[in-house]
Amino acid sequence: MNLSIPYPNSQFSNYKNKYKLYESQNFYISLLWRYLNYLFNEYETIRLIHFIVTQILHYQTLMNTMDEIINKNDYQNEFNPLMQSVFRLT
């Protein structure tokens, strides 16, 4: 799973049935909401959802910054295959 900011030519920009994608996302966020509400009170659930979304956005910003640095400097060949995969160099 890759949580990075999607590139314009990513597989999701050409997704044919965007409504199904939206439905799936909605289903899983609702499931997460219900589960967290089961474990915690509503205030704590809101705080946790906020925390999760914030962490994903921070991760995307970090990955975008790292992508820019890697692409600006010619470091691509210095990474092992796993790291190349993480940075979408292969």
Rg result: 17 Å
Mean pLDDT rating: 83
Which residues form runs of ≥5 with pLDDT under 50?
A: none
The share of residues in extended strands comes to: under 5%
How many distinct helices? Answer: 3
What is the structural class? mainly alpha
List the helices and strands and how they pair.
Blueprint: H1 18-39, H2 42-72, H3 81-86
Explained architecture:
- The chain is mainly α.
- The chain has a domain at 41-90.
- It is built from 3 helices and no strands.
- The chain has helices spanning 18-39, 42-72, 81-86.
- Helix 1 crosses helix 2 (42-72).
- The mean pLDDT is 83.
Quick structural gist:
The protein is mostly helical. The chain is 66% helix and 0% strand. The protein has a domain at 41-90.
